[in-house]
Design goal:
The protein has about 375 residues and is mainly alpha-helical. It contains 14 helices and four strands. It has one domain. The chain is about 55% helix and about 5% strand.
Length: about 375
């Protein structure tokens, strides 16, 4: 692919342009990495402190949940705490964004989050598989999470008539959908592997899920005594808040109108610049204010996150200005929009891909590679 142009459905770069594009993005990354310091550690520790305060306060208020204002406030606080733990803290720490600090509490290798998915499994399925093979059909398991059809390059079958139902269930049970990533359910359905082949993976998921279930639905309700039903309901609602929010942010960063998927053949022998090109075309941003970005884990800057997954996410807002300017100079898209608009296009895609393709799909403008 070194001597041929990098092309997608609508956009292209010559090999020389791809190299120059990559060099400009590498320069941004190197500059930010060199600038990391107290500003970054202060930020993440403040977020961790806020998350813990919200969790403790929320759980305390739920103990008086028989009074509606207490239940509503406690549930909201606990739900926000769970969102922060998963999105801005857990996701970003486990990406290694703070490994440079040497602080064990910020280590990607030892951090464990409030989620049914074991962190060691997530680091493989997300950090390695997803971020290496972003939007490559049959390689990136984030495309459909093993249950959905999210690309026309996925062969249609009658099973996908249930696409809207599967999508809804994945949304409300999202932490369990993430947990099942490493099980590779689509390969089990296809007969490529058996459930027995995933025995160790399933054991890890069971241990983590059991711990989370006992914490939220047994231990804390029992501690509340006669107020157990209100604590149980509050914990369930907080988990639902976290699941729905995470699903919306993540799907709007990967699957709204304008994002593209790729085949394995299209992406062989990629250069660094060509890898950046694929990350850009497979991602979309969300517009919003400061707290929206924090609660999204700054995945509202999904483009920058895919380009620079190991840079502290709170830096993505400032980086985005440069990235957008570079894209404009190279004639490349910078997909961004408000959450309602982007999510509406995701829903339309889920509904459309539930049905058979109107005509056979083909890629006339593939990203070719060297023989």
């Amino acid at each position: 692919m070194r001597n041929r142009a990098v092309r997608s459905d609508k956009y292209s770069l010559t090999p020389e342009q791809a190299d120059a594009f990559g060099a400009e993005l590498d320069a941004i990354r190197e500059r930010v990495i060199a600038d990391l310091g107290e500003r970054d550690t202060t930020y993440i520790r403040k977020v961790i402190k806020a998350q813990r305060t919200l969790e403790v306060g929320g759980r305390a208020l739920l103990f008086g949940g028989i009074f509606p204002p207490f239940w509503l406030a406690g549930t909201a606080m606990l739900g926000i705490a769970k969102i922060l733990d998963n999105m801005e803290i857990g996701h970003n720490i486990m990406h290694g964004q703070y490994d440079w600090t040497g602080d064990p509490a910020l280590s990607s290798k030892t951090f464990e989050w409030d989620n049914a998915c074991p962190s060691d499994q997530w680091r493989h399925s997300h950090n390695y598989m997803h971020h290496t093979y972003t939007n490559i059909v049959d390689m990136d398991r984030d495309i459909g999470y093993g249950v959905l059809r999210m690309s026309e390059d996925q062969r249609w079958s009658p099973y996908y008539l249930g696409n809207p139902v599967y999508a809804f269930l994945l949304m409300v049970l999202f932490q369990y959908g993430v947990a099942l990533h490493e099980v590779e359910t689509e390969r089990i359905r296809a007969g490529e592997i058996s459930v027995a082949d995933k025995r160790d993976i399933l054991r890890g998921i069971w241990q983590k899920t059991k711990k989370q279930t006992l914490k939220d639905y047994v231990a804390f309700p029992l501690l509340a005594g006669p107020f157990a039903p209100w604590v149980f309901a509050g914990n369930m609602t907080a988990n639902l808040m976290r699941n729905v929010w995470s699903y919306m942010i993540i799907f709007c960063g990967h699957f709204p109108e304008g994002t593209q998927e790729f085949s394995i053949e299209e992406t062989k022998s990629e250069s660094r610049g060509q890898w950046y090109f694929r990350q850009l075309l497979g991602s979309a941003n969300l517009t919003g204010g400061k707290w929206f970005h924090i609660l999204s884990g700054n995945l509202s800057f999904q483009i920058e996150h895919h380009l620079f997954p190991d840079i502290p996410a709170h830096r993505h807002a400032e980086i985005s200005v440069e990235v957008r300017e570079i894209c404009e100079r190279y004639g490349l898209p910078y997909n961004t929009g408000p959450l309602p608009k982007q999510f509406a296009t995701v829903v339309r895609k889920i509904l459309r891909l539930a049905l058979p393709d109107r005509k056979p799909t083909s890629r006339n403008d593939e990203m070719p590679h060297a023989a």
